[in-house]
Amino acid sequence: MGQRGEPRRVQTYDGELGAAVARAQDGDEAAFAVAYRLVQPGLLGYLRGLVGDDAEDVASDAWLEIARDLRRFRGDGAGFRGWTATIARHRALDHLRRQKARPRPTALEQDVLDLPGPHSTHDQVLETLSTEAALTLISGLPRDQAEAVLLKVVVGLDGPAAARVLGKRPGAVRTATYRGLKRLARQLGADGVTDDAPRTLGEST
Which of 73, 105, 181, 193 could form a cystine bridge with 146, CB 3.0-4.6 A? Predict the structure, then answer.
């Protein structure tokens, strides 16, 4: 789905984010606060999908590591979102191992999901989902689909970036995202959803 399906507000913020990260790497604390403000809502929504009510604690641990290793980061605003998501996912998995629990996608923040769009599966699902609906519907997705949808919708990553976070092939992540969104669209009764599934992945539906 590429850039066409990426949340518009995230795209708008990427330039500002990249500039803030560069200044923060030079020691500008105010710039680090800007980067935090731009990234935290999506990161927290993603973590809520993995660890539920423990998301804020896990996010705090992730930001400690992000701040510690910030000077090692190389990339732009989109790359920073992917880098922070990878760190947050590792902290979430550590937390789940300690809790001996499995990830359980939960509520997504409505302000992150307020992303109008025309006719694609991605956009129609986002237009219809409410926080309460997301809690019920996304929790019913298979884990790989739920996590791919969270990275795409909440964090705003494209397919290759989400694949790096998950340690999977981009094609597998695109397929999981597509299947998850299609399943949500069917459950929501979305009409006129376009069939934009990848055609060359060699994976059955």
Answer: 105
CATH of the domain at 52: 1.20.140.160
Let me know if residue 74 belongs to a domain.
Answer: yes
Query: How many folded domains does the chain comprise?
Result: 1
In the predicted model, is pLDDT for residue 20 greater than 70?
Answer: yes
| Vertex 95: Cα angle to 94 and 101 (nearest 5) | 105
| Closest among 113, 150, 151 to 129, alpha carbons compared | 113
Q: Which of 180, 190, 179 is nearest to 124 (CA)?
A: 190
Q: How far apart are CA 128 and CA 29, in angstroms?
A: 38
Prediction pTM value: 0.68
